[in-house]
Amino acid sequence: MTSSVADLSDVARSAATLRGFLHGLPGVDQVGAEARAAALATRSIKTTAKARGIDLAIRMVDLTTLEGADTPGKVRALCAKARRPDPTDPSCPSVAAVCVYPSMVATAVDAVAGSAIHVASVATAFPSGQAPLAVKLADTRAAVSDGADEIDMVINRGAFLSGRYLDVYEEIVAVREACGEAHLKVILETGELATYDNVRRASWLAMLAGADFIKTSTGKVSPAATLPVTLVMLEAVRDFRSATGRTVGVKPAGGIRTTKDALRYLVLVNETAGEDWLDPDRFRFGASSLLNDLLLQRDKLATGRYSGPDYVTLD
């Protein structure tokens, strides 16, 4: 991608110019993307490098609970785990953030007070995104007012797939404004976008509209995060920074459950976007069960044996 800042400054001046830009992006070689992701997934990481990778992955986790049965007690327990993932080992790092529904933000903010853990809230009629813009903006403002410093919004996939790119762009811009100082993660719901070309277009659309992160999935649709989709998104943020000078993060979410999975993603990040993205400010895992396996594998490296399932809490 070779566009300059000047080229991008008025891309969204009309529906036609935005469509022309997005459809002018290089097409994704599906076979090539899948082959490269598969090849990188075979990389072996052992001993000291594995230990560092596990600790980095823990620091990148957005520990998440997004269930209709969530309670303040469950959120407080999740936040305690976020602060001290392994209570028996003070050297274990805390996670990047906890991610909850807007109604639970105040509880989470209180529970992580005094730590560096961020509070993220899904908003904009998560997970469907099917609500009037006024409702989405009110949802966002309520979460920010209660203390959320990160907002995970969902794009209107119906509008995107219908080719109404300017509608999607303007909605993201409006939510970005409603976020104020909070960071905005834009969820593409890649499982519904059908093609890698659409993933690339949606990634650029979100970044042009002001996203601080682009995120694969809500975790409510299958398939969720995959290595090839994340590869396409990492290429997009790399090329976007080359074109604009602005760095945007990436967050795969949904279906990432094991340490082996997490390490494969870290290899993918390093080999695609580069070391600059190997940082919790630029790469996150949206996960609920991943942290437990990271803790079990971390303990295995330290003790030489596997702990029983009661070593970790079931959230």
Briefly characterize the structure.
This protein is α/β, with parallel strands linked by helices. It is built from 13 helices and 8 strands. It has a single domain, classed as Aldolase class I (TIM Barrel, Alpha-Beta Barrel).
Descriptive report:
With 315 residues, this protein is α/β, with parallel strands linked by helices. The chain has a single domain, classed as TIM Barrel, CATH 3.20.20.70. Helix content is 47%, strand content 10%. β1, α5 and β2 form a beta-alpha-beta unit. The chain is globular, with a radius of gyration of 19 Å. The termini are far apart.
What is the overall number of helices?
13
Strand content: 5-15%
CATH H-level superfamily title? Aldolase class I
CATH architecture, please? Alpha-Beta Barrel
Question: Oligomer, anyone?
Answer: single chain
Gross morphology = globular
For the record, what CATH class applies?
Alpha Beta
- Fold-level CATH name: TIM Barrel
Domain module count? 1
